[in-house]
Amino acid sequence: MSDPIAEAQQQLRTIEAEHASACKARVADQSEAARRRVEDLARERDSLRRLLMELRQAERRERQEAAAQAQRAQQARETALARWAADRATMAVDVYRESMVELLALGSLQRRLHRIHGSDLPPRPKEQEVRSRIEELINEFDSE
Predict the structure, then answer these.
(1) Cα 119 from Cα 110, distance rounded (Å)
(2) Apex CA 136: angle with CA 133 and CA 140, to 5°?
(3) How many CB atoms lie within 10 A of CB 41?
(4) What pTM was computed for the model?
(5) What are the two backbone dihedrals, phi and then psi, of residue 62, each rounded to the nearest 5 degrees?
(6) Residue 89 CA, distance from chain mean position
(7) Which residue, 22, 58, 119, 134, is the most exposed by fewest CB within 10 angstroms?
(8) Does residue 25 contact residue 34 with C-beta atoms inside 8 Å?
């Protein structure tokens, strides 16, 4: 497939050469036919110049639209990735919180067993220290 801009430029050069040749012929013999040919060629030259300008504008618009479309696609991919990451982070925070609740419940059960059976379980950590540490970890995770 040929390039329409290159073809138009070639036609323009050909027409301009014919126009110049016709102008010389008109000067040489001052014939009416030569004058009409000069005018016809001038109109055709002007028409081709307009067509070439329109082709260049259309090509520029196509490139701009392609770039805009690529940018929209990239933004859509980035948005989807950000949503996915936010969903995963939320799930991780939820799992973490549930794990902490389960650990606290397990610690409570261990203390009860220790009281009931007097086993050699490690001593109970201070409840306030555990809560403070859990809050720190949750805040750390939320800030990330």
Answers:
(1) 10
(2) 140
(3) 19
(4) 0.45
(5) -60, -45
(6) 24
(7) 119
(8) yes
